């Protein structure tokens, strides 16, 4: 099978992101959190290192959610009826998202704390 040109591969990849945005509620919520982080990065004037940390965990949560959704869709395709084993696979896949989200909150608190506490000391 011949590989498609790079621009078509990129178009397909971005279509996947847009499909996630359109149909997946959790991805929409996580993307909203990403937008809030973008706002805070500029509003609080984060350092380059802090910006990189926030962007890394934000994109990691989004990417993990995409992988979780892909696993769930494959499971539904392979076994449309209820199956305890499929439920286990879906649960551990969702667990990966939860762990990444917890890590992102921990890092977010650690990064933003010094900016917010400095901001509050002005009052």
Provide a compact summary of the structure.
Keywords: ATP-binding, Cell membrane, Kinase, Lipid biosynthesis, Lipid metabolism, Membrane, Nucleotide-binding, Phospholipid biosynthesis, Phospholipid metabolism, Transferase, Transmembrane, Transmembrane helix. With 123 residues, this protein is mainly α.
Write the layout of secondary structure elements.
Elements: H1 6-23, H2 25-43, H3 48-78, H4 84-120
Helix pairs in contact: 1-2, 2-3, 3-4
Description:
By secondary structure, the chain is mainly alpha-helical. 85% of the residues lie in helices and 0% in strands. It is built from four helices and no strands. It has helices at residues 6-23, 25-43, 48-78, 84-120. The mean pLDDT is 96.
- Which segments are poorly predicted (pLDDT under 50) over 5 or more consecutive residues? none
Shape: globular
- Gyration radius, to the nearest Å? 18 Å
Mean pLDDT: 96
Alpha carbon gap, first and last residue:
65 Å
- Provide the helix percentage: over 70%
Number of helices: 4
Q: Let me know the number of strands.
A: 0
Question: How large a portion of the residues is in β-strands, by DSSP E?
Answer: under 5%
- Tell me the major beta sheet: none
Structural class, please? mainly alpha
Order of helices and strands: HHHH
Sum up the structure in keywords.
85% helix; 123 residues; mainly alpha; 4 helices
